[in-house]
Amino acid sequence: MSDVLRWGILGAAKIVEAEMGPAMLRSPRNTVRAVASRRLDAAEKLAAALDAPVAYDSYPQVLADPEVDAVYVAVPNALHVDWAIAALEAGKHVLCEKPMAMSADDVRRMNTAASRADRVLMEAFMWRFHPRVEKVLAMLADGALGELRLVRATYTFDLAAAGDVRSGSVDEDLRLNPDLGGGVISDLGAYCVSGLRTYAGGRAVSVRSWCSSAPGRAVETTVSGQVTFDNGVTGQFYAALDVPGGGQVEILGTGGRIRMSNAFRIRAAQAPFDIERQLPDGTWTSESTPFVDQYEAEIDHFAAVVLDGVPQRITPTDALDNALTLDAIRRACDEGEVTVSQR
Question: Which of 124, 222, 118 has the alpha carbon at shortest distance from 176?
Fold first, then answer.
């Protein structure tokens, strides 16, 4: 393998066009070899924008391309498991958009396929790669908040008012299509769960949750709930597809609290990216962190894992624990409080 990771992209989703593709184009350790879409014109347009030499009208063509080292899976949620496993079995490393799959059982299948193929599989939670996250985790490890008690995560987005609905009609958006893995739990809820788990530092053991659907919607558009972790930390979350606001995280301990706005997806125009901290005497301090392109940091990390053997920041076990918690949230919406299944 060369010193540059050669990518094949499955799907011409907006995230590829607006975020991940341009990040690959900017990165000196990554390059786009091929783009595939079920519509050849879409693949050709995106390939041209990303300086990719090849456009395909089917996903298997990418998997058969000997000059593709790694595959970025950006197809609808419900299709992640089949195409990720197919890519792994074809000998490709895989970066799979979140959620890794629609169930923990499917994540287990994906992890098994990666192990058998001796290939890297990583869930694409780009938010984990902003330096603010590592700074806050270091603060928590150093006891800056004393004994950690509570983590709150909210992520809301008004889909109907958004300008990024690819089809032009919110009614046709993939995030509202149950057959393609739509619904707020798998979308914004997956970020909330990832945030709770990352900052709480424990394993989720029980969940209570409540779901509701906006009129005329076939998927849940609002979810809220509470997670109990094995280290005694409580997690609370709220996600909605019909409320503006973005992502917020609050972390409380016996020695104060930390607050962060734009906690998951950031834009350069939103700078500075503050870590607001309340001290035991009630006063507040604020520390800013610089803008870093999360997507570029994510793919640079992935390249380092594949090319240099750097340990994965988001491990297969991490992806499985996220899926197990999401499974429990789905069950709890119908059953009340439930226990999170074991690995």
Answer: 222
